[in-house]
Amino acid sequence: MNLLLHRGQLTAQAICLTACLGGLAQGATLKESFDTDPSARGWRSWGDPTLFHWDASGQQLRVVWDSSRPNSFFALPLPTALGTHVNFSFAFDLTLESHAVGVVAGQSGTFQIAAGLVRQADVLATNYSRGSFPGAKNTVEWTWFGESGAVSSSVSPVIVPSDGRLPWGYSDNYLTLEPGRRYRFELIYTATLRTARMSMTTDGQPGPELADVVLPSNFTRFEVDTFAISSYSGAGQNPLYAGSVLARGWIDNIAITLPEPPITQLRALDGGVALDALSGWRYTLEASGNLTDWSTVSESLAATSGELKLWDPRDGWFPTQFYRVVAVRP
């Protein structure tokens, strides 16, 4: 990420160098209550659009999870990618109307309904298969599997690394979701703990305590850039364990909290800049006389949270100089 400064004042060009969506920048909470048409706020459908319908009268999103159809998503691209090293959260309301598993011939087992964070380029690839291993990657997701034979119903949040291979971050919480009840789920990921904590309420009342998802020590990394309500295809599963699902319900009151930006309160100094920095990031000052050709003019500094100053040793050499601060996560 970078921000731009021109000799003591922020220029208009700084706007295009900060991540933003609909006026909401990093550190904000994106909220969706479906009061009006969500397509006006960047929501879009991929795959089979008939599985998702905005209910204008009920002000909610009607969803069909149907594993007999292609991979399909009702999705909101985020203003910035989220990775293993940043804090974030998401929450949503769910009310099921109906739910059945083992509905496809040859796929008699259970299969998930899902919502959460994915990487757009991965889920839109033609070879993406959530029901096979290692067909999924870059996922931080709430899932629920209905009961099937000896397999109990379970809320099973999962974090899948960028290469899709084991180990995943995963936990099973054995409980049944009942049609007609209004559930709210929230997943909070804390980077320093490498842990996703999920909580739930039922009709506004606290639900059972859910097990944390703790990333194994040899978990590599993930990167996600889209919130999606996901209806996954059952294609590609191992025939010995294949499952299927057909469920209908409503999603409402989505909230996605983005991490704080690594650069805030950028201020001009005589011969440099000052900014409010975040611990764990490295910062470098770059300069340009024409907004096209940039050169590094300071050393790369690691920051603790608080004010950080970056200096240009060439100050006074040029009549006009633009500065930008580049922040990277080691």
Task: List the defining traits of the structure above.
330 residues, mainly beta, Immunoglobulin-like, Jelly Rolls, 2 domains, 9-stranded antiparallel beta sheet, 8-stranded antiparallel beta sheet, 47% strand
Summarize the structure.
The chain has 330 residues and is mainly beta. Helix content is 2%, strand content 47%.
| Highest CATH level, the class of the largest domain | Mainly Beta
CATH homologous superfamily classification of the largest domain = Exo-inulinase, domain 1
Q: Which CATH-level-2 architecture of the largest domain?
A: Sandwich
- Give me the Rg, rounded: 23 Å
**CA-based shape:** elongated
Task: Please write the string of helix (H) and strand (E) elements.
Answer: EHEEEEEEEEEHEEEEEEEEEEEEEEEEE
Instruction: Average the pLDDT over all residues and give the rounded result.
Output: 89
Total count of helical runs of at least 4 residues = 2
Output the CATH topology of the largest domain.
Answer: Jelly Rolls
Major beta sheet summary? 9 strands, antiparallel
Regarding quaternary structure, what we see is single chain
Helix/strand/pairing category: mainly beta
Q: What portion of residues is helical?
A: under 10%
